[in-house]
Amino acid sequence: MLNDNYWFASGYMWIFWLLIIFIWVVLAIGYNRNKKQDKQWPALDKLVDRYSRGEINHEEFEKKRKELTD
C-alpha cells in the first residue's frame, strides 16, 4: 500500500517541477522582451522630437520608426 502511494506522489512531483520550470522560462522571456523594449523607447522619443521640430520629414520619420519597432 505504501509503495502505491509513493508512485502516485512522485508522479505529481514531476508535474509540479515541470510547471515551475515552465513558469520560470515564460517569466524570463517576458523580462527579456521588456528589457529590449525599454531600450527602444528612448530612441523613439528622440525620433518623435526630431519630427516635431521639423528636422526630418514624414517619410523619413516612418522609415526610422519602422526600423526601431521591428
What does this structure look like?
The protein has one domain (2-69). It is built from two helices and no strands. The model has no long low-confidence stretch (mean pLDDT 81). It has helices at 2-53, 58-69. The longest helix has 52 residues, at 2-53. By secondary structure, it is an all-alpha fold. Helix 1 (2-53) runs antiparallel to helix 2 (58-69). The chain is 91% helix and 0% strand.
Descriptive tags:
mainly alpha, 70 residues, 91% helix
Low-confidence stretches: none
Mean pLDDT: 81
For the biggest sheet, the summary is: none
Label the structural class: mainly alpha
Number of strands: 0
**Tally of contiguous helical segments:** 2
User: Terminal Cα separation, in Å?
Assistant: 59 Å
The number of domains: 1
Compressed to H and E, one letter per element, the order equals HH
Helix content class: over 70%
Shape: rod-shaped
Percent strand: under 5%
Q: What would you say about this model in short?
A:
This protein has helices at 2-53, 58-69.
List the helices and strands and how they pair.
Blueprint: H1 2-53, H2 58-69
